[in-house]
Automatic annotation (TrEMBL):
Keywords: Thiamine pyrophosphate. One of its GO terms (biological process) is L-valine biosynthetic process. One of its GO terms (cellular component) is acetolactate synthase complex. This is Acetolactate synthase. Pfam families: TPP_enzyme_C, TPP_enzyme_M, TPP_enzyme_N. GO terms for molecular function: acetolactate synthase activity; flavin adenine dinucleotide binding; magnesium ion binding; thiamine pyrophosphate binding. InterPro entries: AHAS_TPP, DHS-like_NAD/FAD-binding_dom, THDP-binding, Thiamin_PyroP_enz_cen_dom, Thiamin_PyroP_enz_TPP-bd_dom, TPP_enz, TPP_enzyme_TPP-bd. Residues 399-554 form the Thiamine pyrophosphate enzyme TPP-binding domain.
Length: 585
């Protein structure tokens, strides 16, 4: 939703209920600890962003030749400065130390100001979609809002998939875009796009800055909106003349969000908590359904009592009417329930041992399994080996497709914020830039992009930033030369008729196309290929031990299917439990 001060020349093109957009969401507060500034943040930095944190000695030597010496910002408190400098200092005051920005004509003032920042590092990805997915990977893996910056027009529209992804998956993002000067808005100027209108339904909130004095307040509000209630993306669109205008900033202005703040969830009522505790105490087979995924149902569950706790009132009862609903922060609700149960002593009467034994037996009777065919590589096996060799402690990002589902099934995940995937939107090309963002935000932690050959190619250009910064991103591509998930549907419902799902070279189907080893070689990244199951363990071990980035091309059969599978529009009773592309359906 556009925001402006009185007397501004440009107003929103349609009436609004400021500060809410058509897709206003309420989110749970995200922690936003300020990062301590390391010497590498404070010193003059090489153009290659955080290369100093990850580079090898040889990389450091090559980077030195491109080092630019910038004068750090040194304004007196009452000294006028450009809007772009005010913006950068406002970001610093929000604790931002890393962001993802690609320059252009309408945003170059911001980039010039970034070169004067004593604490912010820009990580230069090669496409704006890569930027926003990297910011998302950073936010998902750290809990802090991710920040990205793009120029006007095509730069801004390249962020659109990232906005939709972040809104659906409740990821706190602040995206800043350059815009044509105010006097040119609405004239179809070169690289002009009404990005506020374009993104109105896929952002939690958005702003068009029409007064340079508003920048400190708007940035403060943007971070507050992105990280409170139900987290989501916020857009701040800044015309170029605002970036160039001089002003004396007034810091720590009051927030102007009365409607939003008044709608944030209050502490849960004792009455509702008592109802929930009573239902739990009466249950012999309680199930906690937390977060995304698919809730399996059965005839028995028709008799179950459903309790729905959600911070977003729009989500309650959307798919299934609960017996008890509570609009609250689930953390506060659970804390309140625990306190009440301890006070009453009812928790001592809970006995779910029979239910636990039944679940353990079901897991043994119906384990996740797969078939092997000679020395062909089952994709599930490759992920299981990765899980074993990393002890389930790596941060895993994925693209979208079969590999995404196998990564969810076969990797064990020991803690929160390890699993980075485009769950709601299902955006292919997410995995590689998200892994880069996670590596930036989590130095020293193993980050692996488990990807498919289709998804990987959608943002393969981000190998450049990963190599230049020497990020220790490991890429394991499960390469079946097809769009695997669509092929699975073709096998099941279209008699294996291929509708443009083969990604290899039709003129020579025996070759691996494209050759990812040659692509990574062009970027200076080591790589290897495995075609036999017996080679997998040693190949993954080598990938993990190699410093810096590494790609492992794992050739897997395209006949493999992800199971269990529920057809579109189906229910639990329609679940498919066996079969693959080797047998007709």
């Amino acid at each position: 939703m556009a925001s402006s001060t009185a007397g501004a020349a440009i107003a929103p093109s349609k009436p609004s209920l400021w500060p809410f957009s058509a897709a206003s969401r309420l989110l749970v507060p995200f922690p936003k600890p300020l990062l301590s500034l390391s010497p590498s943040h404070r010193n003059v930095r090489p153009i290659s962003a955080s290369a100093d944190r990850h580079q090898t000695p040889s990389a450091a030597a090559s980077t030195a030749s491109t080092t630019a010496v910038h004068l750090l910002r040194n304004f007196a408190p009452d000294e006028p400065r450009k809007g772009s400098d005010i913006l950068v200092e406002a970001l610093e005051r929000e604790g931002v130390t890393d962001l993802f920005a690609y320059p252009g004509g309408a945003s170059m003032e911001i980039h010039q100001a970034l070169t004067r920042s004593p604490s912010i590092i820009n990580h230069l990805l090669r496409h704006e979609q890569g930027e926003i997915f990297a910011a998302s990977g950073y936010a998902r893996s750290t809990g802090r809002p991710g920040v990205c910056i793009a120029t006007s027009g095509p730069g801004a529209t390249n962020l659109v998939s990232g906005f939709a992804d972040a809104l659906l998956d409740s990821v706190p993002l602040v995206a800043i875009t350059g815009q044509v000067p105010r006097r040119m808005i609405g004239t179809d100027a070169f690289q002009e796009t009404p990005i506020v209108e374009v993104t109105r339904s896929i952002t939690k909130h958005n702003y068009l800055v029409l007064n340079v004095d508003d920048i400190p307040r708007i940035i403060k509000e943007a971070f507050f909106l992105a990280s409170t209630g139900r987290p989501g993306p916020v857009l701040v669109d800044i015309p170029k003349d605002i970036q160039q205008q001089l002003a004396i900033p007034v810091w720590d202005p009051p927030l102007r969000l009365p409607g939003y703040i008044s709608r944030l969830p209050k502490p849960p009522s004792r009455c509702l908590l008592d109802q929930i505790i009573r239902l739990v105490s009466e249950s012999h087979r309680p199930v906690l359904y937390v977060g995304g995924g698919c809730l399996n149902s059965s005839e028995e569950l028709r008799r179950a009592k459903i309790v729905h706790i959600d911070i977003d009132p729009a989500e309650i009862g959307k798919n299934k009417q609960p017996h008890v609903s509570l609009c609250a922060d689930v953390r506060l609700a659970l804390q309140g329930m625990n306190a009440l149960m301890e006070e009453s002593g009812i928790h001592q009467k809970f006995d779910f041992s029979t239910w636990r034994k039944e679940l353990d037996q079901l897991k043994k009777t119906y384990p996740l399994s797969y078939k092997t065919f000679g020395d062909l590589i089952p994709p599930q096996y490759a992920i299981q080996v990765l899980d074993e060799l990393t002890n389930g402690e790596a941060i895993i990002s994925t693209g979208v497709g079969q590999h995404q589902m196998w990564a969810a099934q076969c990797y064990s995940y020991k803690r929160a914020r390890q699993w980075l995937t485009s769950g709601g939107l299902g955006a292919m090309g997410f995995g590689l830039p998200a892994a880069a963002g996670a590596a930036v935000g989590n130095p020293g932690v193993t980050v692996v992009d488990i990807d498919g050959d289709g998804s990987f190619q959608m943002n393969a250009q981000e190998l450049a930033m990963i190599r230049i910064e020497n990020l220790p991103v490991k890429m394991m591509v499960l390469n079946n030369q097809h769009l695997g998930m669509v092929v699975q549907w073709e096998d099941r419902f279209y008699r294996s008729n291929r509708g443009h799902t083969y990604l290899g070279n039709p003129a020579n189907e025996s070759e691996i196309f494209p050759d990812f080893l040659k692509i990574t070689e062009a970027y200076g990244i080591p790589a290897a290929r495995v075609t036999k199951k017996s080679e997998v363990r040693e190949a993954i071990r080598k990938m993990l031990k190699t410093p810096g980035p590494y790609l492992l091309d794992v050739i897997v059969p395209h006949e493999e299917h992800v199971l269990p599978m529920i057809p579109s529009g189906g229910a639990f009773k329609d679940m498919i439990l066996d079969g693959d592309g080797r047998t007709p359906h």
